[in-house]
Design a protein that fits this description.
The structure is a single chain. The chain is mainly alpha-helical and 113 residues long. It has one domain (24-106). Helix content is 41%, strand content 0%. It is built from five helices and no strands. It has helices at residues 24-29, 32-41, 50-55, 73-81, 86-100. The longest helix has 15 residues, at 86-100. The radius of gyration is 22 Å and the shape is extended. The protein starts with 23 loop residues before the first helix and ends in a 13-residue tail after the last helix. 0% of the residues are buried.
């Protein structure tokens, strides 16, 4: 076994620093009212009301099963180029296929449908 250890370092970034496109300095200068107004104008904003919270249910995801799977190199390369979470996307593609073909040969629906 190789005794050499591999260490990764991110140049110019603090470990655990938030990622994304948020302008944290600008946000820190905004008042609560300005933040609420900006959120209200954003069509992608969802602000749950009391009724939504009353109906909300906790859904615990089922654990994934660890398997060994052989895939074509170009298929794996394509998914990896999509970035972080490529295995989750592979699972989503497979789940879509299973859901689309659930009635073929009397198969069961995929969990989560």
């Amino acid at each position: 076994m190789n005794a050499k250890r591999t260490m990764r370092r991110s140049a110019g970034k603090k470990a655990g620093a938030p990622r994304g496109r948020t302008d944290w300095k600008r946000l820190a200068k905004m008042t609560d009212a300005a933040v609420k107004a900006a959120a209200a104008e954003d069509i992608d904003t969802f602000i749950p009301d009391k009724e939504w919270w009353r109906r909300a249910r906790v859904v615990v995801p089922t654990p994934k099963r660890l398997i060994s799977l052989r895939l074509d190199a170009d298929v794996v390369a394509w998914f990896r180029r999509q970035g972080r979470g490529y295995q989750t996307r592979m699972n989503a593609v497979l789940r879509s296929y299973v859901a689309a073909h659930a009635d073929d040969r009397g198969g069961k629906r995929a969990a989560g449908d």
